[in-house]
Automatic annotation (TrEMBL), chain A:
The lineage of its organism: Bacteria, Bacillati, Bacillota, Bacilli, Bacillales. It comes from Cohnella lubricantis. The keyword Membrane applies. It comes from the Bacteria. Keywords: Membrane, Transmembrane, Transmembrane helix. The keyword Transmembrane applies. The chain crosses the membrane at residues 54-73. This is DUF3619 family protein.
TrEMBL record, chain B:
The lineage of its organism: Bacteria, Bacillati, Bacillota, Bacilli, Bacillales. It comes from Cohnella lubricantis. GO terms for molecular function: carbohydrate binding; carboxypeptidase activity. The keyword Hydrolase applies. Keywords: Carboxypeptidase, Hydrolase, Protease. It comes from the Bacteria. This is Carboxypeptidase regulatory-like domain-containing protein. The keyword DNA repair does not apply.
Length: 119, 702
């Protein structure tokens, strides 16, 4: 059989076998597959399924988080540095050699000159 | 890898994220912001203050009151006297306790007024409300708005319920004080009467305060002509005016204790650094100033003890300006340098306008240091001192526990001769008139102001056996060993110095004068010691046994060693010894010169007695007594010489002047002579009470 003949044959068989069947909601189906009205178009969009490439998205999120983290870290170290320069709550005064110093700074200075002497 | 997702699911996800974000912004972040603001404020971070103010502004209800309470009222003070870290008097300085958040920035008056006003008007009614009102009133007073201060107190009084009656009275008393300060005596008295009339309450402190205020008002009203004013400006030597500095005009009765709220003359400088006290009662006062650590750091108020007295007799308007000066930076020896040579090179930065410098040192003791002068009148900003000069310095000593006995700290007795001691030094700069310009000692609280550490070690010598005995607390054995060492080698100046020191310490411990056996050591030391520090002990010793030629000889040597500038105490003692010999005119001259260099006026009694004796002029004596009132120590009652002399004047007018003077001179002669028995006999016989009072006070001058 030639292909055209074969096609015709199958078509005839189909018509014959499905002759008793009727598609009642064909309009609906057509509307879904080929939406024409606006609500139908919107619904189609609403249910549109697409694929997201996980790798690029994941990577960009990771970069964003990293930036935020670094910024936070920097702020923290800034604070800590400031706290080191600024007097702290537990600071004590000490009188030494007729001067009044903050105890921690004085002890640091003494350690400093003692280390120098030893080197 | 891919993820399949529908648009509607993606959309829901985005919506959920947005909701979360909004929730964060509206609820979580503000709380976080408040927490951060609190933290930044407490740490003293830049902008912390504005953050906290913003937090207060944006919060409401209980949250707002809690913030104001925690950050303004709790750390705020209801009086000027408790606002400062450091109180600087005439050579005395004390530091207040560091608060729990010492770094939190302080509020300006305007800032506080705004929030305290809100708290006083609508904050919850409890003890904090009372504090808020008092603090608000203080801020208004500082801003020279006494009406607002009184209004704030009155408004709070009305808000307080009957559970807070005693607090109500406190506020009323505070209001009366404000009116009294503003000179509205009638309103003040009306309030006080109202307060006293209230029945059934027992608060002795309040009653006492009411009574004190009533007396003050009465005095001020009666003596309005006698009231004086004291005003001035406080600035730094770089010209910057010091705003918001506490200024306290303290009476001589109060200077021996620390500053308290009830002292009447307290104020703050305005933005130009100016202050003024009006309606000041007659009396002797010293200005103390209150500063924060930031204000004093690296600066000093150049004043010396007893040199800042303000004597008000009535109706005077005085000006006293105060200029803070930068601390002198030290150059050498510093940072614990170890010195092993025969001299020490001291050097510091020069001070503009300085005519001379004084070099001071300290020895360490258990809980601090002992200070002393190394050399005075140094004309340049450097000096090379031989170690012998350092070994010969005179200093006090502390006591140290050896076993269960307290003995003079051996390290202090060794002084610069102890190679294990860490010494420190400092300088003071003076102008040509002898007024202190600035000093190197002070508050050094950050890296810039800290400078070099003023410490050094002297390790030129090693300890002898005698030194080691001394350091082990075996003083008597050490003395014997020093004496043996000295006998072996008469050039051993260290042993000689230690012998003299130990003999003097023993005599002082037994509360007796030096004995004759000690004198040969003293005389030998005097002949080799160029500092002249032993000479005064010899003057004293020969004075006590009445060997006048030796007194004159050693005093002459002392004058030479000091290049004519003998310390006022030694000079006055020599003057008194001259009076004892009947050389009254010479004694008067020495006492006059000593008086000029002694701001404490400790020997004014002897000086005016010599004036009365030689010139017979009581008016001149009274004038001197008024000019140089004897300053009190630790609130001790010192004789009021002007009153005593005034008594003499009145008594002399009642009797024949010639015979009165003859008797007075005779009494003075007995008193100058110092013979206790004769003095008692004279006192028993004398018929003049004022003369007796004067002679009794004079016999106690020392």
């Amino acid at each position: 059989m030639r292909p055209e003949e074969e096609q015709q044959f199958i078509r005839d068989r189909l018509d014959e076998e499905l002759g008793d069947l009727r598609f009642l909601r064909s309009a609906e189906v057509l509307d879904r597959t080929h939406p024409r009205s606006l609500p139908a178009k919107l619904r189609a969009l609403w249910n549109y399924e697409f694929e997201l490439p996980l790798l690029p998205i994941g990577a960009s999120f990771a970069v964003l988080l990293a930036i935020l983290f670094v910024a936070q870290l920097q702020e923290n170290t800034d604070n800590r540095q400031r706290a080191a320069v600024m007097p702290r709550a537990e600071r004590q005064l000490v009188e030494a050699g007729g001067n009044t110093y903050w105890k921690d700074e004085y002890e640091k200075a003494v350690r400093g000159v003692e280390a120098q002497d030893q080197s | 890898m891919k993820l399949k997702i529908k648009v509607k699911h993606l959309f829901s996800l985005v919506i959920a994220l947005c909701a979360l974000f909004i929730c964060l912004q509206l609820i979580v972040l503000p709380r976080l912001e408040v927490a951060m603001a609190k933290k930044h404020f407490e740490q003293g971070a830049a902008g912390g203050k504005n953050e906290l103010l913003h937090a207060i502004d944006t919060s409401s209800g209980d949250d707002k009151w809690a913030l104001i309470r925690q950050y303004m009222i709790e750390n705020g003070s209801e009086s000027i006297s408790t606002r400062f870290n450091v109180i600087v008097g005439d050579g005395t300085t004390y530091t207040s306790e560091v608060t729990s958040s010492p770094d939190a920035p302080s509020w300006t008056g305007e800032e506080k007024v705004k929030y305290l006003e809100a708290y006083a008007a609508s904050g919850p009614i409890d003890g904090y409300l009372v504090r808020a009102a008092k603090q608000l009133a203080l801020e208004y007073q500082i801003l020279s708005r006494p009406e607002d201060a009184a209004r704030a107190l009155e408004q709070t009084e009305h808000r307080l319920t009957s559970n807070y009656n005693s607090q109500k009275r406190e506020l009323m008393l505070a209001r009366a004080k404000i009116y009294a300060d503003a000179g509205q005596f009638e309103t003040a008295e009306r309030l006080l009467t109202e307060l006293s009339e209230e029945p059934n309450w027992q608060n002795t402190y309040l009653k006492d305060s009411i009574a004190k205020l009533k007396t003050r008002i009465m005095e001020q009203r009666d003596n309005s002509a006698a009231a004086s004013s004291v005003s001035g400006t406080i600035k730094r030597s770089d010209g910057q005016p010091m705003a918001g500095i506490g200024v306290f005009l303290r009476s001589s009765k109060d200077t021996y204790h620390s500053l308290v709220d009830s002292e009447p003359y307290q104020t703050l400088t305005d933005s130009a650094g100016s202050f003024s006290f009006k309606g000041v009662a007659p009396g002797s006062y010293v200005i103390y100033i209150g500063l924060t650590f930031g204000q004093i750091d690296g600066w000093t108020r150049p004043v010396k003890y007893n040199e800042e007295w303000i004597d008000l007799r009535g109706g005077e308007n005085l000006t006293r300006n105060i200029t803070l000066q930068r601390l002198i930076q030290l150059r050498s020896p510093v940072d614990q340098q170890v010195i092993t040579g025969k001299t020490v090179h001291f050097e510091w930065e020069p001070v503009e306008g300085a005519a001379y410098y004084a070099l001071n040192g300290t020895f360490p003791i258990e809980n601090g240091t002992i200070g002393f002068q190394i050399k005075d009148h140094i004309e340049s900003n450097a000096i090379e001192l031989p170690l012998d000069t350092l070994y010969s310095v005179e200093s006090g000593y502390s006591y140290k526990k050896f076993g269960d006995k307290d003995i003079p700290d051996p390290s202090n007795l060794l002084g610069f001769a102890d190679p294990s001691s860490r010494f420190s030094w400092s300088v003071e700069a003076y102008d040509a008139d002898g007024r202190l310009l600035t000093r190197s000692n002070g508050y050094r609280l950050n890296e810039q102001t800290m400078g070099r550490l003023p410490f050094f070690y002297l390790k030129e010598r090693t300890l002898t056996e005698a030194d080691q005995l001394l350091l082990a607390g075996r003083m008597d054995e050490a003395l014997l060993e020093y004496q043996a060492d000295y006998e072996r080698d008469e050039q051993d100046s260290h042993s000689l110095r230690m012998i003299v020191k130990l003999l003097e310490v023993k005599a002082a411990d037994d509360k007796r004068p030096l004995d004759a056996a000690s004198v040969p050591y003293l005389e030998k030391l005097a002949s080799i010691d160029e500092t002249g520090n032993t000479l005064f002990s010899l003057v004293n010793y020969y004075g006590s046994i009445g060997n006048w030629p030796e007194v004159d000889r050693y005093y002459g040597m002392l004058k030479e060693a000091r290049q004519g500038r003998v310390e006022s105490y030694s000079q006055a003692q020599y003057g008194i010894l001259l009076l004892k010999q009947g050389r009254v005119q010479e004694g008067e001259a020495e006492l006059r010169q000593a008086q000029e260099n002694d701001p404490s006026n400790r020997f004014i009694g002897s000086y005016i007695a010599s004036v009365i004796y030689s010139a017979g002029n009581l008016d001149r004596a009274e004038e001197l007594a008024r000019q140089y009132p004897e300053r009190s120590y630790y609130g001790e009652d010192n004789p009021d010489w002007s009153e005593l002399v005034h008594g003499l004047i009145e008594e002399s007018q009642g009797s024949s002047e010639d015979s009165y003077f003859t008797k007075l001179r005779e009494a003075l002669r007995v008193c100058f002579g110092g013979d206790q028995k004769r003095l008692e006999d004279w006192t028993a016989d004398s018929e003049y009470p004022a003369m007796k009072a004067f002679i009794k006070a004079l016999s106690k001058v020392d």
